[in-house]
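Lab notebook, bench 4. We co-purified these components, and the gel suggests they stay together. Before we commit to crystallization screens, I want a quick structural picture of the whole thing.
Request: model the full complex, all chains together.
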Amino acid sequence: MDIAQIVMYIMLFISLYFEVFLLITFFEHTDARKATSAPIKLTALPSVAVIVPCFNEETTVAGTLNSLLALDYPSEKLEIIAVNDGSTDATSKVLATFKHHPQIQILSKENGGKHSAMNKALQYTQAEIVGCLDADSFVESDALIQLMQHFKDESISAVTPSIKIHNARGLMQIVQKAEYGLAIFIRNVFASIDSLFITPGPFSFFRRSVIEEIGPWRHAHSTEDLEMCMRLQKNHKKVTNEPLAIVYTTAPATFRELFKQRVRWTYGFLKNAMDYYYMFFNPRYGTLGVLVLPISIISLFSAVFLFSTLIWNTLVLAAREVVRFQTIGLTVPSAQFDIFFINTSVILTVTLTLVILTLILMGIGKRLARDSFLSVDMPIYLILYGFITPLWLTTALYKVVANNGVRWR
Amino acid sequence: MRTLPWLKYLLAFVITALIFGTAIVANNFFNAKRIEQLRSIEEGISIDILSLETQFELLQEQSCASIFENPILSSQLDTLANKLSFAEARLGADNEEVLRLKQHYSLLEIKDLLLMQKVSDKCSVEPIFLLYFYSNEEGTCTDCTRQGYVLTELAKQYPQLRTYSFDYNLDLSAVKTLISLQGVPDDLPALVINDELYSGFKSIEEIQEILPELEERATSTATSTDEQ
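Here is the predicted assembly.
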């Protein structure tokens, strides 16, 4: 067995271990999930401020604000703060059409990034709970009330929703639809073991008192949502998830846009991981410290390694076929089937098990967010994502090593 | 300080190890089955060769047609070669079982070759024999892969061509004797076509040129089949 094979076995073992661990955790917390999905009482709801940072969102911001106004939540307890973060398009004109709405406050500032927009809005509200909705996202009418029920528990500092792709069209968005299904599952399981390390931009909510205690949003390498959650975890604040709070986000439609977004996310994750390095392998932070964070980093490297191996094997195979063609020309392959030649290697069997397990986790994620267990986007994701993910992972790794920054937009 | 669910970590580890273990056991089981099947094919071929030899001893010239044009044995040897090559790739060229099977296969090839030579003498038939010497050792035969493609394609096009492949480095005295008898150099690939030695890669066209009777026989077989 050569070194590459040993590394391959280790990577596969870690990946499989993590998926098995997630599945066990999911079934372990079935009762807790049933308890939280009980009917919601509309009494004693907290006051909420939803901040909408806008930077050149002329086409989507009206839809975002309208979906917030349609929320099933007492209007006297809900305020919406739209912050124009130095947009250079017609965002300010679109926002102006909402300026007379009693629930909406419009603020304007020079461009400074999403974190600065959040912090400015924070100064203009006294709401007990504050949250954010990206100006390219939309919410289901019961999303807020689903999230707010968790704040009845005084120990909860933040709640995250389930994010789905708005109107998925085209290959790139369809692939992300499946990926977001898997993310719903993972977020839910992570929440049940106090291991969430991202409070996503679209519709995550925070107890205002906690933000005041641990400090406002930071630039955090253009991933303020990740850093805020890491800081919450560092301070042992509880972050949970509500899978029935559905938020729709506009996903990148082209590979170029997706690539840019993911390089930013991965770069931000790696840089924040460096800033919070002391949480890794640290039992003070529970499963997040000893398992979730280290495996999240390892998975980046294993994806790059598995991808390189796949590419290398494909190239070797292609080269062999080219030589065959050059030697004997085009030939018809033998159509004979013999069970003897079926590949039963350990690597292939474990990889197939991993693929099946991933499909199951993805299906569970979709069910949690009221979608069907199986859908056509799942196999497309499995086929395509293995090839494209390592591209942005490698780029982000390079940027971290070369210390090249990334931009928010 | 949060408490760590060690029991759950352990349970996940045990399940993962079980999945891995099952994959390893299953792979070993199927590999053992493959070896078993290879052994059984070799035994079958061995019996067939012995039977043909005996038949030839008993009937001499009367059995010419049935022995010389026995396509079953030739195709059995081809099937065995394919399966052996797959097993070699899966289990490794150093695997003892694979090496033993390969030695046995080479012996069967030599036995078949000798029998066919004997039959062709007695039956006054000009056979088309092709002996192929290759090496799997890295860097020792860069053209062996290409030569393999050529011979596989030729065998497909001309079923009457009897090809015998030998690993030049196989630790088997019979193969070493054959190499020395034919005067095969270590400049591989090497072909022995109807007792003539050719060193280096030979394309389909070059072999067709060396063996024009291949085309003739293919045509005559086709004609006789058409007439039937």
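Residues 8-126 of chain B form one domain. Worth comparing against the SEC data before the next meeting. The beta strands of chain B are 129-134, 162-167, 190-193, 196-199.
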